[in-house]
């Protein structure tokens, strides 16, 4: 089968030079339809992020960096001050697309910082420098995925069953994924791992995306409903849980797709290790704990109108937080591109990532 990591199937890519286009897989259509779409403006990029055509923390960051280029690439004739003002307005706008994944803000800040550092350049050269920075963010993400996979696979043993939640794969990054990169690295190391994928209500990233992605990469996968996670642990079908994260606070509290917190409690109750795989771009050292991580609230119709039909009575109250926060005490280890952090403490995180 074709590999997603293959260039033609890349989650997102910049087409052309300057001016160029941001091209991406429309993930809202998978697995029924594989369609690539173009974004030519920051507005189209904002919409693509908001409606989850591109999703997953690292991929959102890369998309935002290129979305910023789309916003200024026709403005090289402006004076430097005007150009920088346009850049900042566009970055502020893109930052409003989704609130939880810190990679979005991290990538936009890095682009702003690049502009500030190269304030001596003429505007056309500054624009080229910014495109180079967006490309660097994408390429570094790819390298971090490989490194996390290699570190993470050392935690797994031949023949194990591993539960994952949401999609933290190639589709969620510009490389081979965070959590799912561990499965690809385990396969390269000759270990046979069987993945159990939670379907991940309400938008079914596990069913639609993770099982599709793993199938396409020849990794054995069994899809289960979210409510079955505890039972597959009780039945000893899984020996580890591995997920990604959208924002990790300085103490290791980790926001990820809604349902991850419950899975961490189930893993604890069954004595199963719970691992988070996240690059340094997903850490937010400005937040001491996960208590202040902003949690995205999404449209109630995602719950009331699942699978294209009405699945709840009109007018019923609906609560639809898209993420939850797993406390550090429930996390056995965090796998980063620099190594494995365990036990998960503020000191160990700082030593690994800031040291
Ligand atoms: O709402 P989504 O689909 O963007 O949520 C994605 C997740 O929660 C992923 O698990 C997380 O971003 C890790 S991605 C490598």
TrEMBL record:
Gene3D superfamilies registered for this protein in UniProt: translation initiation factor eif-2b, domain 1, Translation initiation factor eif-2b, domain 2
Catalytic-site annotation from UniProt: 246 (proton donor)
SUPFAM superfamilies per the UniProt record, alphabetical: NagB/RpiA/CoA transferase-like
Gene Ontology MF term list: S-methyl-5-thioribose-1-phosphate isomerase activity
Residues the record marks as site: Transition state stabilizer: 166
InterPro entries noted in UniProt: IF-2B-related, IF-M1Pi, IF_2B-like_C, Initiation_fac_2B_a/b/d, M1Pi_N, NagB/RpiA_transferase-like
Keyword Repressor carried by entry: no
Catalytic activity annotation: 5-(methylsulfanyl)-alpha-D-ribose 1-phosphate = 5-(methylsulfanyl)-D-ribulose 1-phosphate
EC class (word): isomerase
The protein, known as: Methylthioribose-1-phosphate isomerase
Underlying gene: mtnA
């Amino acid at each position: 089968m074709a590999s997603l990591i293959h260039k033609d199937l890349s989650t997102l890519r910049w087409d052309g030079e300057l001016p160029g286009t941001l091209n991406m897989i429309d993930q809202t259509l998978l697995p029924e339809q594989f369609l690539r779409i173009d974004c030519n403006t920051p507005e189209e990029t904002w919409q693509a992020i908001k409606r989850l055509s591109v999703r997953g923390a690292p991929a959102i960051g890369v998309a935002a960096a290129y979305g910023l280029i789309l916003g200024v690439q026709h403005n090289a004739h402006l004076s430097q001050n005007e150009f920088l003002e346009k850049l900042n307005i566009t970055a502020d706008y893109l930052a409003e697309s989704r609130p939880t994944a810190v990679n979005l803000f991290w990538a936009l800040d890095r682009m702003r910082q690049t502009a500030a550092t190269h304030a001596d350049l003429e505007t056309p050269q500054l624009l080229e420098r910014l495109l180079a920075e967006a490309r660097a963010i994408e390429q570094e993400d790819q390298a971090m995925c490989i490194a996390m996979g290699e570190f993470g696979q050392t935690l797994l043993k031949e023949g194990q069953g591993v539960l994952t939640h949401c999609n933290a794969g190639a589709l969620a990054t510009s490389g081979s994924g965070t959590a799912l990169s561990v499965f690809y690295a385990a396969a390269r190391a000759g270990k046979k791992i069987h993945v159990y994928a939670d379907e991940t209500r309400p938008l079914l990233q596990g069913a639609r995306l993770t099982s599709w992605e793993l199938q396409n990469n020849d990794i054995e996968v069994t899809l289960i409903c979210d409510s079955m996670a505890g039972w597959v642990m009780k039945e000893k079908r899984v020996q580890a849980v591995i997920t990604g994260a959208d924002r990790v606070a300085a103490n290791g509290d980790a926001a990820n797709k809604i349902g991850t917190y419950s899975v961490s409690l189930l893993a604890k109750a069954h004595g199963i290790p719970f691992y988070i795989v996240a690059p340094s771009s997903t850490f937010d050292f400005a937040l001491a704990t996960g208590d202040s991580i902003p949690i995205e609230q999404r449209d109630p119709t995602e719950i009331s109108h699942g699978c294209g039909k009405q699945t709840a009575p009109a007018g019923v109250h609906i609560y639809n937080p898209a993420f939850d926060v797993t406390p550090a005490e429930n996390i056995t280890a965090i796998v980063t591109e620099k190594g494995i952090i365990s036990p998960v403490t503020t000191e160990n995180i700082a030593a690994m990532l800031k040291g």
